[in-house]
C-alpha cells in the first residue's frame, strides 16, 4: 500500500485518499489490538455506516416535510461522528446542512429565504451522498484487505 | 421630638390631630374644672378626678370611656405624665391627680397645637433608612424570586394539566378493566356451564354404552360435531365485544412515552420532532424507573430527541431552565466536599496494581464520565480513555449524566460533556451537576467555539473546552491538566499541578460566593484554553471545524509559546475556575485573547 502522506511524517499510515483524513482516522486504528485485528476500528466504522444511512433517511423525511430545524439537528448529529472518524468532506457537508437548516448562509450570516435554504440543503445532500459513498467504498476496501 | 422637625412640619400642617384639638377644647370648658383643667402654670393639664373624667368627659369628647387608652393616646402625641416631685412627696393637685405636659401644649398657645404631632414609631424609622439603603438589592432579589416563582407556577400548572389528563386516562382505563372483568366472569360462567353439560353427557353416554352399542353412533356425533357448543360461542362473542383497540389504551401508551421523555411540556409540543437519534433505539428505557425522572419542574423543552442546542434561539435565554429555582434552593451554598483530586478514598475502578508499570496514574486511577449522545463518538472516546488506564462510564445525554452524579456526587473525577444532546443539553446538565458536585472538572466537548458559546459554558460551571472532533491527545491533555494529583509522575506536569491547587481553592470559593472578583488576566488564561483545544483540533483533523474565524488561526500561534508564558503568573490561572460571570466580562477586552 502506498504510504504517501501529506499530513505528517508518519510513513506507516495507509493512504485512504482525500476523502478521509488519515491522521484522525489512524487514531482509531491505533486503538485496535493489532494491525491484523481491526475489530474495534471496523465495528466503529460499520457502526458509522449504519448511523449515516439512518440519518440520510431522516434527512430525506425532514426535507420532504420542509423541516429546516430538524435538518439542522441531523446535520449536527452526523457531523460529530464523521469528524471523529476523519471523514472530512462528509463532515463539511453536514456542517453546511446544519447551517442552512439554521437559516444561515455558509458564512454564518442569517438567511431569511426558507426556500433558498431548503434548495441549498437539497443540493448539499446530493454531494453529501456522493462523498459518503466514496468514503464508504474506500473504507470497505480497507477493511477487506489486510492492512500492511 | 426634635424641634427642627416640627418647624419644618409646621408649614404644611393643617393636619394636626383632632385629638389635640379635642383636648384643648375640653380644657376650655370651665364646667370641668373640678375634674380636668389646665395646670397652674398653663403649661400642663391635670386630671383631678380620674373616675368622673373617665365616665363623663371621655365619652363626650373622645367617644370612649377608657382612661388607659386616653393615656396611651397622650403618649403617642408625646405628652408626658408629670411625676410627683420627690421632696413634696405629693402632687400639688392631690394624690389621685394625673398631670400631663407637652412643650407645645399651653393654655395661651392655641396656635401651637399644630406642632403636636403623633410620634413616628422609633423602630420603624430605623428600618426606613435601612430600606432605602438596600432597597435596590432587595428589589433585585425580589424580582429574582418572583421570576423563579413564576417559573415554578408555570411548571406546576403544566404538570397539573398533565396529571389531570393522566387521571382521565386512568379512569377510562379502570372502567375498561371493569368491563373486561365482568366479561371474563360471564365467560367463566359459560365455560363452567358447558363443562358441566359435557360432563353430564359423558356420564350419560358411558352409562348407556354399557347397555347397548347402538348408542355409539350418537356418541360419536356429539363428540365430533363441528358446531361449537352455544356456551363457548357466547363466551367468544363476549370476549370479542370488549377487546380491541380502545382509546384509553392508546392514551396510556402515549403517556408512558411522555413519561420516558420526562414530561413533555406544552412548550415542547411545538417542536414536534419525535424521531430518535440514529442508532439509539431503546435508549429511553433508562428513565422510566429513575427517581430523577421527576425533573419535570425544570420546564425544559424536552421531547425532541435529536439534540437540544442550548444556543438555538428558542432556548438561548432560558438555559438552564431550572437554574433560578435551584439557586434559591442552594441556601448557604454547597457543602464543601473533599476534592476528588485531593482525597483518594475510593478504590480505582480499573487496572490491577500490577499494571502500574505502564499506567500513567499513581495509586488511584481517575474515573471519567463521558457524556455523549453519539454512539460512534462515545465509543471512540471511551476507548481512548480506557487505553489511557482510566475508569470510564458513558452517559448518553445530559439527563443520564445528572442521574449518575446525583447517585454518587463524588464518584467521578472528571467529566467530558457534549453540548447538544437529547433530553438535556450539556450546559443545563452542568448547571445541575454543579449543585451537588461543585468541584469536579467538567470539560465541554464541542465544535462551537465562539465567544458567546464559551461564555455560556464557563458561566454554568464548565472548566475547560475540548474541541470536537476530539483526539486522544486532546483528551489526555485535559486529563493531565485537570487531574495532576492522580499522575504517577506529577513531575512531568509540575506547573499544571501547582496550578490545580490554586484552581481547586478558587473554584470552591467561586462556587460558594458567586461574585468573587478576579484579575484581568482571566482573558489570557481563557484564551489559552481555546488555543489549546484549537491546536489539538488542527493537528488532529487537518482542518478546523465550525469555529469562528478568529479562533482557528491563532492556535498555532499560541499553542507553543503561551503555556510556558502563562505558568509564571499564578493569577493568570486562577480565573480558570473563577466565577464565569466575571470571566466573561473580562476576557472580551483582554489584551492577549484571540477571541477578543
In short:
Chain A has 148 residues and is mostly helical.
* C-alpha termini separation of chain A: 7 Å
Please report the total strand number of chain B as a whole number: 9
| End-to-end separation of chain B | 61 Å
Specify the CATH class of the domain at 3-119 in chain B: Mainly Alpha
CATH topology description of the domain at 3-119 in chain B: Arc Repressor Mutant, subunit A
Determine the strand fraction of chain B and express it as a percent band.
Answer: 5-15%
The unreliable regions of chain A are 1-11
Number of strands of chain A: 0
**What structural class do helix, strand and pairing data of chain A support?**
mainly alpha
Largest sheet of chain B: 5 strands, parallel
Helix/strand order of chain A? HHHHH
Keywords (chain B): DNA-binding, Nucleus, Phosphoprotein, Transcription, Transcription regulation, Two-component regulatory system
Protein name (chain B): Transcription factor
Pfam families (chain B): HSF_DNA-bind (PF00447), Response_reg (PF00072)
InterPro entries (chain B): CheY-like_superfamily, HSF_DNA-bd, Sig_transdc_resp-reg_receiver, Sig_transdc_resp-reg_Skn7, WH-like_DNA-bd_sf, WH_DNA-bd_sf
What brief labels describe this structure?
heterodimer, A: 148 residues, Four Helix Bundle (Hemerythrin (Met), subunit A), elongated, B: 596 residues, alpha/beta, Arc Repressor Mutant, subunit A, 5-stranded parallel beta sheet, flat, disordered C terminus
Explain what this protein looks like in three dimensions.
The complex is a heterodimer of chains A (148) and B (596). Chain A has 148 residues and is mainly alpha-helical. Chain A has a single domain (22-141), classed as HPT domain (Four Helix Bundle (Hemerythrin (Met), subunit A), Up-down Bundle), CATH 1.20.120. Chain A is built from 5 helices and no strands. Chain A has helices spanning 22-30, 39-64, 68-85, 88-101, 114-144. In chain A, helix 2 (39-64) packs antiparallel against helix 3 (68-85), helix 2 (39-64) packs antiparallel against helix 5 and helix 3 runs antiparallel to helix 4 (88-101). Residues 1-11 of chain A have low confidence and may be disordered. Chain B is α/β, with parallel strands linked by helices and 596 residues long. Among the domains of chain B are: 3-119, Arc Repressor Mutant, subunit A; 146-260. Chain B has 22 helices and 9 strands. In chain B, helix 18 (522-541) packs across helix 19 (549-559). Chain B is flat, with a radius of gyration of 42 Å. The two termini of chain B are 61 Å apart. Chains A and B meet through helix 1, helix 2, helix 3 and helix 4 of A and helix 12 and helix 18 of B.
Amino acid at each position: 500500500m502506498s504510504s504517501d502522506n501529506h499530513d505528517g511524517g508518519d510513513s506507516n499510515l495507509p493512504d485512504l485518499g482525500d476523502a478521509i483524513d488519515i491522521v484522525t482516522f489512524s487514531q482509531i486504528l491505533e486503538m485496535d489490538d493489532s494491525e491484523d485485528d481491526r475489530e474495534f476500528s471496523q465495528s466503529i466504522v460499520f457502526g458509522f455506516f449504519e448511523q449515516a444511512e439512518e440519518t440520510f433517511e431522516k434527512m430525506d423525511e425532514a426535507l420532504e416535510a420542509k423541516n429546516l430545524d430538524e435538518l439542522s439537528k441531523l446535520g449536527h448529529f452526523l457531523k460529530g461522528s464523521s469528524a471523529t472518524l476523519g471523514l472530512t468532506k462528509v463532515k463539511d457537508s453536514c456542517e453546511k446542512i446544519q447551517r442552512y437548516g439554521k437559516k444561515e448562509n455558509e458564512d454564518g450570516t442569517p438567511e431569511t429565504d426558507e426556500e433558498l435554504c431548503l434548495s441549498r440543503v437539497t443540493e448539499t445532500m446530493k454531494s453529501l451522498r456522493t462523498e459518503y459513498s466514496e468514503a464508504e467504498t474506500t473504507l470497505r476496501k480497507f477493511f477487506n484487505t489486510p492492512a500492511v | 421630638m426634635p424641634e427642627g422637625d416640627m418647624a419644618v412640619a409646621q408649614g404644611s400642617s393643617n393636619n394636626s390631630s383632632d385629638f389635640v384639638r379635642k383636648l384643648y377644647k375640653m380644657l376650655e370648658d370651665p364646667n370641668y374644672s373640678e375634674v380636668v383643667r389646665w395646670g397652674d402654670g398653663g403649661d400642663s393639664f391635670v386630671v383631678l378626678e380620674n373616675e368622673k373624667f373617665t365616665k363623663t368627659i371621655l365619652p363626650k369628647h373622645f367617644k370612649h370611656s377608657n382612661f388607659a387608652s386616653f393615656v396611651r393616646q397622650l403618649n403617642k402625641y408625646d405628652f408626658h405624665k408629670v411625676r410627683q416631685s420627690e421632696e413634696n412627696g405629693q402632687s400639688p393637685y392631690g394624690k389621685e391627680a394625673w398631670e400631663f405636659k407637652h412643650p407645645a401644649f399651653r393654655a395661651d398657645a392655641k396656635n401651637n397645637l399644630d406642632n403636636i404631632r403623633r410620634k413616628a414609631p422609633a423602630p420603624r424609622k430605623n428600618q426606613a433608612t435601612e430600606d432605602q439603603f438596600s432597597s435596590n438589592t432587595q428589589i433585585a432579589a425580589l424580582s429574582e424570586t418572583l421570576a423563579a416563582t413564576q417559573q415554578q407556577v408555570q411548571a406546576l400548572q403544566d404538570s397539573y394539566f398533565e396529571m389531570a389528563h393522566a387521571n382521565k386516562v386512568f379512569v377510562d382505563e379502570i372502567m375498561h378493566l371493569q368491563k373486561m372483568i365482568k366479561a371474563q366472569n360471564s365467560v367463566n360462567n359459560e365455560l363452567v356451564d358447558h363443562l358441566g353439560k359435557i360432563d353430564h353427557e359423558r356420564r350419560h353416554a358411558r352409562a348407556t354404552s354399557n347397555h347397548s352399542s347402538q348408542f355409539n353412533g350418537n356418541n360419536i356425533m356429539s363428540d365430533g360435531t363441528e358446531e361449537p357448543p352455544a356456551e363457548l360461542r357466547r363466551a367468544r362473542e363476549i370476549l370479542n365485544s370488549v377487546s380491541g383497540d380502545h382509546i384509553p389504551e392508546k392514551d396510556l401508551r402515549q403517556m408512558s412515552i411522555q413519561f420516558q421523555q420526562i414530561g413533555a411540556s406544552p412548550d415542547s409540543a411545538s417542536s414536534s420532532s419525535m424521531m430518535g437519534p440514529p442508532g439509539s433505539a431503546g435508549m429511553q428505557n433508562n428513565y422510566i424507573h429513575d427517581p430523577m425522572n421527576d425533573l419535570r419542574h425544570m420546564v425544559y423543552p424536552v421531547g425532541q430527541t435529536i439534540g437540544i442546542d442550548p444556543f438555538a434561539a428558542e432556548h438561548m435565554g432560558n438555559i438552564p431552565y431550572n437554574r433560578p429555582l435551584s439557586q434559591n434552593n442552594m441556601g448557604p451554598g454547597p457543602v464543601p466536599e473533599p476534592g476528588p483530586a485531593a482525597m483518594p478514598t475510593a478504590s480505582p475502578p480499573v487496572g490491577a496494581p500490577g499494571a502500574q508499570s505502564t499506567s500513567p496514574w499513581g495509586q488511584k486511577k481517575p474515573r471519567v464520565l463521558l457524556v455523549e449522545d453519539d454512539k460512534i463518538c462515545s465509543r471512540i472516546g471511551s476507548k481512548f480513555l480506557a487505553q489511557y488506564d482510566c475508569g470510564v462510564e458513558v452517559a448518553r445525554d445530559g439527563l443520564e449524566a445528572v442521574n449518575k452524579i446525583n447517585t454518587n456526587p463524588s464518584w467521578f473525577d472528571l467529566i467530558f460533556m457534549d453540548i447538544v444532546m437529547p433530553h438535556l443539553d450539556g450546559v443545563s446538565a452542568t448547571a445541575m451537576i454543579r449543585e451537588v458536585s461543585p468541584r469536579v472538572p467538567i470539560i465541554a466537548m464541542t465544535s462551537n467555539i465562539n465567544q458567546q458559546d464559551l461564555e455560556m459554558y464557563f458561566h454554568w460551571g464548565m472548566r475547560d473546552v475540548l474541541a470536537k472532533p476530539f483526539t486522544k491527545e486532546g483528551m489526555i491533555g485535559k486529563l493531565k491538566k485537570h487531574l495532576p494529583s492522580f499522575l504517577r509522575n506529577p513531575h512531568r506536569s509540575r506547573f499544571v499541578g501547582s496550578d490545580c491547587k490554586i484552581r481547586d481553592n478558587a473554584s470552591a470559593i467561586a462556587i460558594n460566593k458567586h461574585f468573587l472578583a478576579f484579575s484581568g488576566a482571566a482573558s489570557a488564561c481563557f484564551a489559552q484554553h481555546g488555543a489549546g483545544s484549537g491546536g489539538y483540533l488542527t493537528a488532529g483533523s487537518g482542518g478546523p471545524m465550525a469555529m469562528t474565524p478568529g479562533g482557528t488561526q491563532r492556535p498555532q500561534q499560541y499553542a507553543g509559546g503561551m503555556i510556558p508564558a502563562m505558568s509564571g503568573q499564578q493569577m493568570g490561572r486562577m480565573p480558570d475556575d473563577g466565577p464565569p460571570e466575571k470571566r466573561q466580562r473580562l476576557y472580551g477586552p483582554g489584551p492577549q485573547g484571540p477571541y477578543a
